[in-house]
Amino acid sequence: MFKTPTLHRKILADIEEKIVSGTWPPGHRIPFEVDLAAHYDVSRMTVNKVMGQLAQAGLIERRKKGGSFVSQPKAQSAVLEIHDIADEVRSLNLEYSYQRLSITRRKAIGEELAWFADGSPGDILFVTCLHLAAGQPFCLEERAINLATVPAALEADFLLVAPGPWLSSQIPWITAQHRIQAVPADRKEHKLLNLTPKDACLVIERRTWNTSGAVTWVRMTYPGNRHVVTADFRPASA
Hints:
Elements: H1 7-21, E1 29-30, H2 33-40, H3 44-56, E2 60-63, E3 67-70, E4 76-79, H4 85-91, E5 96-107, E6 123-133, E7 136-146, H5 163-170, E8 175-184, H6 187-192, E9 200-210, E10 213-223, E11 232-235
Antiparallel strand pairs: 1-3, 2-3, 4-11, 5-6, 6-7, 7-10, 8-9, 9-10
Helix pairs in contact: 1-3, 2-3
């Protein structure tokens, strides 16, 4: 049974369509929040939440005391593709396998709260799983899925299909943020990744959003001596 879209989602979709279609081109000044609230007959708080999500998705730029504008294309950008770990393993001519270790529904806590546009403790599905190459640990995945944006995740058990490819097939994302760092392995990682106390780990953290809000946060932990990250860079079109 389909749910009727809320006014918030209708406004979000309406403004997004104007931007994506080019009706509002880059640099276009978006009507002030008070005017949008009057046009849609909603509270200014509702409009402010919509604008916050559009800004977080990178579609608009909010300027203090200047209003909001459709974002300009960047002169140059780095492109780091999101790969399926199974493809990474198979590219090494190794047999891929996968284990779901745990799955829990809970409220967002700590740093996770910054994920949500209004800072409220929304529900997330937290999944921990292990990816293997030729039977050996290849990557530890710890992932939070925002159930407000991806409610269908509650119907998935992730026993046979990993969360990453499942999400790619279910919901599009507009913008992503990556953080890559080398960290010492803790006791859990020593055990799950078959590491020694002197081994370091390569950690890739990624957050993705669409215009409805945060989609997923994931932390991928690789044995540092067995993994290399490469990124391709290209100039954006003038």
